[in-house]
Write a structure and sequence with these properties.
The protein is of the alpha/beta class. It has 10 helices and 16 strands. The protein has one domain: TIM Barrel (Alpha-Beta Barrel). Helix 1 links the parallel strand 3 and strand 4. The structure holds ligand RRO.
Length: 301
């Protein structure tokens, strides 16, 4: 049984995608993840200039999820283009994630990267960096305008990654669609924090971090479910996917593909194949021919 999926003009060999933020800054790691079975890989978010990120601790393991405060560490645009050329020479399906603090920077990044990727993923939702970039994803007209400007500069599909703001997600996703997005990724991590009771201070240098993993799943799932009711473009689910059951939940809520990030820490790279096998088996057992027929089924009453 085939589980290839199409996201607008993009076609993937299966619905599992490496989420941005993990194993995404070098050609060798991106190629390794693709070879392990992912249908596509998303790079770490790229900024124009190299960025060292925050001081440690940058990751807190809560037991029921993680809070990260990486602070956008990446080697910058020029170095990432060198890596992307290698990735593309291996026929890997590659999405380049971009992060900027204003629309002009986003446009610049898009115009420079569009020749080296299969799609651009606009990160409008980083919870850990101070500045304008993180506000864009909370304000529908800014989402629409940023998406539109990037769309004009891009020769490849534009995917917009949004924050897990359940109450606003219909407006935000519609804004992305109106701006020309080919798909939305729901969601980035949730703004969160941790306080050290001994020092009586926030643990993370940037105070706030991004909550990912199991604790994020119900929030992101609700975003997918809600957005599916208003959107025409495909949704990529992201947040706390550890098993084929998690993946199927997202598909039933309305996702056409899913991204995996935090789970790689404990489950390893075998997770992509494992989830694909689980989805195939589920389709067979339920007499469903195509994965597409599963998308959004939880909405039928
Ligand atoms: O690098 C980060 O701190 C980070 C980013 Br850019 C993001 O989009 N989401 C996240 O949880 N961390």
């Amino acid at each position: 049984m085939s589980i290839n999926v199409s996201l607008g003009a993009l076609s993937l060999r299966n619905p599992t995608i490496l989420a941005s933020g993990i194993l995404g800054t070098t050609a060798s790691s991106l190629i390794r993840v693709y070879k392990s079975g992912a249908g596509a890989v998303v790079s770490k978010s790229i900024s124009i200039n190299p960025n060292e990120g925050y001081k440690t601790p940058v990751l807190i393991d809560l037991g029921y999820g993680y809070i990260n405060s990486m602070g956008l560490p990446n080697p910058g645009l020029d170095e990432m283009i060198v890596e992307f050329k290698v990735v593309k020479s291996k026929k890997v399906k590659l999405f380049g994630s971009i992060f900027a603090s204003d629309i002009d920077e986003f446009k610049y990044l898009a115009s420079k990267l569009t020749d080296y990727v299969d799609a651009l993923e606009l990160n409008l939702s980083c919870p850990t960096k101070m500045g304008v970039g993180l506000e864009i994803g909370k304000i529908p007209w800014m989402v629409e305008e940023t998406t539109r400007e990037v769309y004009k500069k891009s020769k490849v599909p534009v995917i917009v990654k949004l924050p897990p703001l359940v109450t606003l997600i219909d407006e935000l996703t519609l804004a992305a669609e109106d701006g020309g997005a080919s798909a939305v990724t729901l969601t980035n991590t949730a703004k969160a924090m941790k306080i050290d009771v001994f020092s009586k201070k926030p643990i993370l240098q940037g105070v706030y971090g991004g909550l990912s993993g199991k604790a994020l799943k119900p929030l992101s799932l609700a975003c997918v479910f809600k957005a599916y009711e208003v959107l025409s473009i495909p949704i990529i689910g992201c947040g706390g996917i550890y098993s084929w059951e998690d993946a199927v939940e997202y598909i039933l809520a309305g996702a056409k593909a899913i991204q995996i990030g935090s789970a790689i820490v404990s489950e390893g790279l075998g997770i992509f194949k494992k989830i694909c096998i689980g989805i195939k088996k589920y389709l067979e057992e339920n007499n469903i021919d195509k994965i597409n027929d599963l998308v959004g089924l939880a909405h039928r009453r």
